[in-house]
Amino acid sequence: MTMPLRVLIVEDEMTIALLIEDMVTDMGHEVAGMAMRLPQAVELAETGEFDFAILDVNLDGRRSFPVADVLSARGVPFIFATGYGSAGMEGAYVGQRVIKKPFLASDLENVIRSVA
């Protein structure tokens, strides 16, 4: 087991956010922040203390790339979660690590281990 991480979850669907929260805590990590809309997510990314982030690409019709920009500038590793898989990525984030929804806890754990 790796050291417990402080995780930011950015997901606009409450049931999915809670499912990811359960997965993260079951792995022994701490959910240190959760956001469902882009403005809140950007603010948390700018001010929160995180070791890792899971970003839904589409937040109520808006892309989460500004959140990724902030996390990148702060040196916080992250993955994108999307039902579109790699095909949902654009611009500078093409080729970025993506986990395709729906995913299993074991899939998420493997990705966290490889990125964080």
UniProtKB/TrEMBL annotation:
<protein>
    <submittedName>
        <fullName>Response regulator</fullName>
    </submittedName>
</protein>
<dbReference type="InterPro" id="IPR050595">
    <property type="entry name" value="Bact_response_regulator"/>
</dbReference>
<keyword id="KW-0597">Phosphoprotein</keyword>
<dbReference type="InterPro" id="IPR011006">
    <property type="entry name" value="CheY-like_superfamily"/>
</dbReference>
<feature type="modified residue" description="4-aspartylphosphate">
    <location>
        <position position="56"/>
    </location>
</feature>
<dbReference type="Pfam" id="PF00072">
    <property type="entry name" value="Response_reg"/>
</dbReference>
<feature type="domain" description="Response regulatory">
    <location>
        <begin position="6"/>
        <end position="116"/>
    </location>
</feature>
<dbReference type="InterPro" id="IPR001789">
    <property type="entry name" value="Sig_transdc_resp-reg_receiver"/>
</dbReference>
